[in-house]
Design a protein that fits this description.
The structure is a single chain. The protein is of the alpha+beta class and 793 residues long. It contains 21 helices and 29 strands. A seven-stranded mixed β-sheet has the order 3-6-1-13-10-11-12, with helices on both faces. Strands 4-8-16-15-14-9 form a six-stranded mixed β-sheet, sandwiched between helices. Strands 19-27-28-29 form a four-stranded mixed β-sheet, with helices on both faces. α12 packs parallel to α20, α16 packs parallel to α17 and α19 packs across α20. The longest helix is centred in the last third of the chain and has 28 residues. The chain is globular and about 80 Å long. The N and C termini lie far apart (68 Å).
């Protein structure tokens, strides 16, 4: 295998290398937070509000304090001296965005334990610390809280009315964020358009529901007084900063470790009060403290996502060319503004998708209600906005009498137009530009794989036994590789093994494999000599995290650059050791050798481990460093735009309302693919979650703010039996925004399923004149769509 200079044959990048993580995990040797046994520890349990909106009149904890095994009981009064929680980084508005659009972003600090008022069912009111979880939960039942119920708001549109009660007394209304963007002259475009369609589409609320619920453990070292925190977080460095700020500690005395994580999906990418209170308890008690939530807590008190209302209009000329779009988007933020513009602005700047639309008017409002707070969930505002746009495209196609796939083809931006400026401003505050892509090719492949003509021919034969065939399409773009930076450190150990530490932790993405592949190519060593650590604030003092389809773009390119720099150091050190010019050496498979036949060589272990005396550093001439290590902070110059086209063929039973997916096609473009097997797994997982939202999952609230779907008896999550085999294809347009040409991949699969399945179901229900305006498309909802019409004979 040759890895000579920049001419690397048989590169590791592009190979379907088996995941090195899997052997350990499949043997049950994972190390999740709950697996970390800390001697002498106590466990925490939280008393949560049973009311959606109420004033706390009194809390009596005397009986709980006297319960067996109880170490401490805290209420809001006990932690009133600590600052309330704010997700500061997520709430920050980039200066460029602020200067151009002047958005409204209102802060709603969350008390660590509710004192005066509770704002949603599940809000923490008290904390019990006991010798084990069972005793802690027994003590929770002994806490007597007196509540005075207050008016409840669950409908975001109602919350915007003048008569709506305020959730936060220090705000003038229930608006959390507001932003408006305009391109061209949309009023004139709509006034002169041949056809205008106006629709209301709703993206319903559902949740990430990871296999591993949230957990955090903390202890104080009795010798150094340093605080170590293990958490299932996606952003360990941000958690470290938040803990240090809350507890008044220097950041370098707080060590956060992201242990193995059983799924994050954005739900574990933000800050929670439990992650601050558990370390505080460890600090005060001088004992290790563990908390992990149960499934009911995860469903009702961890963050929710997706709920949006779109009042969208599309304008087109007689040939179906889009001339304008208007959208009024309302986003239900829940009780607190946790992440500011992240989701609303993602929806805004992804609405246009791959289409050429010259005139744009988009207004977004984030609204506070008495429901659990909402945060990003895999796709983060994109599945919602793609649902609205792709549904509107099908409604326009129907109005114009043009096939849905043809309407899309007429409006796609071509590869020769890249980079393409939309006229909008991206999330960083820079002019939005699509760096690369071939959207027409994505659609061509999806149409071919879906066998449109064959499906239409079967449709003309009519529904058989009340079962109706439908086909749908949906396309999307995704700006990936969010900054501001990510870190990678490469060290060559004395044994010759390579230690790679990155700031981005893994929640199942396979970083230990894919990042090792990148490092192996960059350095010139076999992939199996590389050990990867992610999400440890000691290994990399600076970092951001694994969110927003950013890890591969940022941590991957940091790894690549650090590896190339270390490669130069290795060759330089070998040149001095061998007494030959560096230009006459090449590094391949961990061996530095002369390019001359029969010339000298030295392997990496000998080079790194050899010294004058064992355990002492090699002497230096004062001009060359001897430490074979490098740290790189990669800052992306812009977004790498991934894209995709989905197609679905479904069969709908008019008698039962059941939707069966017969064929699911996905064609995606994520630039250069580092590991095809991992990439396929990421896309498949995203589609599975998207199908869950399209057909099964919904977090339902009653008018009283009570969650109606608090267990898996009510909240339906699909299993492997409900996910069809996927017909997958890909194209590769490398991103010019980074050295590797990669684009983010983790969220892409989740973006289009709701839209494509809604389009397919509506197509199947065409004989009934049904219009799909929201999901999930459960049997009862499909029957509701059919019921008003007359069943065909």
């Amino acid at each position: 295998m040759s890895r000579d200079g920049d001419q690397q044959d048989n590169r590791w990048i592009g190979r379907a290398v088996p995941r090195v993580e899997d052997d350990r995990l499949l043997r049950g040797n994972g190390r999740y937070v709950d697996d970390i046994a800390l001697p002498g520890g106590v466990e925490a349990a939280f008393l949560r509000s049973p009311h959606a909106h109420a004033r706390i009149e009194s809390i009596d904890v005397k009986a709980a304090l006297e319960a067996p095994g109880v170490v401490a009981v805290w209420t809001g009064e006990d932690v009133a001296g600590l600052p309330p929680m704010l997700n500061k980084e997520e709430l920050r508005t980039p200066p460029g965005l602020a200067a151009i659009l002047d958005p409204t972003v209102r802060m709603t600090p969350m008390p660590l334990l509710a004192g005066g008022t509770v704002l949603y069912v599940g809000q923490p009111v008290a904390l019990v610390l006991a010798e084990n979880r069972y005793l802690a939960e027994d003590a929770l039942e002994l806490i007597d809280v007196r509540y005075a119920p207050l008016p409840v708001l669950v409908d975001p549109e109602e919350a915007l009315t003048a008569k709506a009660p305020l959730l936060h007394d220090d705000l003038p209304d229930n608006t959390a964020v507001a932003v408006h963007a305009r391109v061209g002259d949309p009023d004139a475009a709509f006034a002169s358009a041949h056809t205008v369609v106006s629709e209301r589409f709703e993206a319903h609320r559902y949740v990430a529901s990871p296999i591993e619920t949230r957990a955090v453990s903390a202890r104080v070292d009795p010798y150094s007084d340093r605080l170590t925190v293990w958490s299932g977080t996606q952003t360990p460095h941000r958690l470290r900063e938040a803990i240090a700020h809350t507890l008044g500690l220097p950041a370098d005395t707080v060590h956060v470790i992201a242990a193995d994580v059983g799924g994050g999906f954005g739900q574990k990418g933000i800050l929670y009060v439990e992650e601050l209170l558990v370390p505080y308890a460890a600090l005060l008690l001088g004992r290790p403290v563990l908390w992990r939530e149960d499934r009911n807590e995860n469903l009702t008190a961890s963050s929710h996502a997706r709920e949006q209302i779109h009042l969208i209009e599309l304008a087109a000329d007689a040939d179906g060319h889009l001339v304008g779009v208007r959208d009024r988007i309302t986003v239900n933020f829940g009780a607190y503004n946790m992440t500011g513009l992240v989701v609303p602005y993602n929806s805004l700047c992804h609405l246009l998708g791959p289409y050429r639309i010259p005139h744009v008017d988009i207004d977004v409002t984030g609204v506070l209600t008495n429901t659990t707070f909402a945060t990003p969930y895999r796709g983060a505002g994109r599945p919602e906005t793609v649902f609205a746009m792709e549904r509107a495209m099908d409604r326009l196609a129907s109005e114009l009498g043009i096939a849905p796939e043809e309407l899309r083809a007429r409006n796609l931006i071509g590869p020769d137009e890249m980079p393409y400026a939309t006229g909008l401003v991206d999330r960083s505050g820079s002019p939005q530009s699509y760096d690369s892509g071939d959207f027409p090719e994505l659609l061509r492949r999806a149409v071919a794989k879906a066998d449109v003509e064959g499906v239409r021919a079967r449709q003309r034969e009519g529904g058989r036994d009340g079962r109706h065939l439908g086909i749908g399409f949906a396309m999307y773009i995704e700006a990936t590789g969010l900054g501001p930076f990510e870190t990678a450190r490469v060290d060559i150990a004395p044994t010759g093994r390579v230690r790679l530490a990155i700031g981005a932790p893994s929640q199942g993405q396979g970083h230990r494999t894919s990042m090792a592949q990148i490092a192996a190519d960059a350095i010139g060593v076999p992939v199996d000599v590389i050990d990867v650590t992610g999400g440890d604030t000691e290994a990399t003092p600076f970092g951001v995290g694994t969110i927003a389809s950013r890890a591969l773009v940022n941590a991957g390119n940091a790894t690549h650059r650090a590896g190339r720099l270390v490669r130069e150091k290795i060759i330089d050190a070998a040149a001095r050791r061998l007494g030959v010019p560096a230009g006459s050496l090449h590094l391949s498979d961990g061996v530095v050798a002369s390019t001359e036949p029969g010339g000298p060589s030295i392997d990496l272990a000998e080079l790194a481990g050899r010294a004058a005396l064992p355990g002492t550093p090699e002497p230096t001439d004062g001009q060359h460093g001897t430490e074979l290590s490098e740290t790189v902070h990669f800052r992306p110059p812009g977004f790498a735009v991934a894209s995709g086209a989905h197609a679905a063929v479904v069969e709908v039973d008019e008698h039962t309302g059941e939707v069966e997916i017969l064929h699911y096609v996905v064609v995606h473009d994520a630039g250069v693919i580092v590991n095809p097997m991992i990439a396929e797994g990421q896309v498949t997982g995203g589609i599975a979650q998207g199908i869950g939202g399209a057909l099964y999952e919904e977090m339902v609230y009653g008018a009283d703010g009570q969650p109606r779907t608090g267990t898996y008896m009510d909240y339906l999550v699909p299993t492997s039996s409900e996910i069809p085999d996927l017909d997958m294809d890909e194209i590769h347009t490398p991103s010019p925004m980074n050295d590797l040409g990669v684009k983010g991949l983790g969220e892409g699969g989740a973006i289009a399923p709701q839209a494509v399945l809604a389009n397919a179901v509506e197509d199947a229900l065409r004989p009934f004149g049904a219009v799909v305006r929201r999901g999930p498309l459960s049997p009862s909802r499909v029957r509701d769509l059919i019921r008003p019409s007359v069943t065909p004979g």
